[in-house]
Design a protein that fits this description.
This protein has 211 residues and is mainly α. The chain folds into two domains: 5-165, no CATH class; 167-211, no CATH class. The protein is built from nine helices and four strands; from the N terminus they run H-H-H-H-E-H-H-H-E-H-E-E-H. It has a two-stranded antiparallel ribbon with strand order 1-2. The chain has a two-stranded antiparallel sheet with strand order 3-4.
Length: 211
Amino acid sequence: MFFTPKRYLKVTATIIDLCICLFLSYGLLSNEFVLAMANSLFHISKESLSIKHVFVFVVTYFFYYFYCALFFSLTFGQLICGVRVIAPTFFLRRLAAIMRLLLLPVRVILDMFSREIEHPWCLKLTASRLIYRSRVISYFLATFICLVAIALTPFSPLMYKQQFLGHQQIDYGLKGFVEGDIKDFESFREIGSTSLGFSSFTIHLRQYLGL
C-alpha cells in the first residue's frame, strides 16, 4: 500500500465513520432489539458486556454504512472529506455503495496491494469509482473533524443507557438536619447521584451559624 494525499482522505473518512459508529454502538448496547439481533448472529448472550459491545459495534457499522449508502450513496465521513461517487445512474450509485459494504473484506485486501487509491478489481466489482477532491478545504475540514471525533471518543461510553440525557431534577429547597449543636459529621447529609455515581456533603448553613 502506498500512502498518497488522496489516500489520506480515505483513511480520515474511515476514522470519522468509526468514531460515529462507536458513539452509536454504546447507545445501542442497551437496546434489547439490537442485543437480540447480535445474539442471533454471534451467540453472545453469555458473554461479558465488553465482548457484547464489540459485536454490537460490528452490527452498528453494517447498518450505518447500509443506510448511508441507501440514502446518500456515501457515508458521513466520505461526505465530510469531499468524496464523490461516479456511476451511470442514481440507482447504480446507491447499489455500488451497498456493494462496497458487502465486499469490504475483499476491498481492504486488494487496496493494500494497489498503487492506486482503489484497486482496479474493486472498480469492476462495484461498477463505480470514488473521486477524492484534492482541495485545501477538503484536507482542512477532514483533519479538523477527524481530530474532534477522536477527542470526543473517550466520552462515547456516556451514551450507554443514555443516562446523562435523562431529565435530571434539582431540588434547591432546604432539608431538615440534626437538631442541636454541630459536634460531628452527623450534621452532614450525603447526597448521591443515581445517574453518574457522584456524592457530596452539605450542611444546614443557618444551623451551623446559630441563626
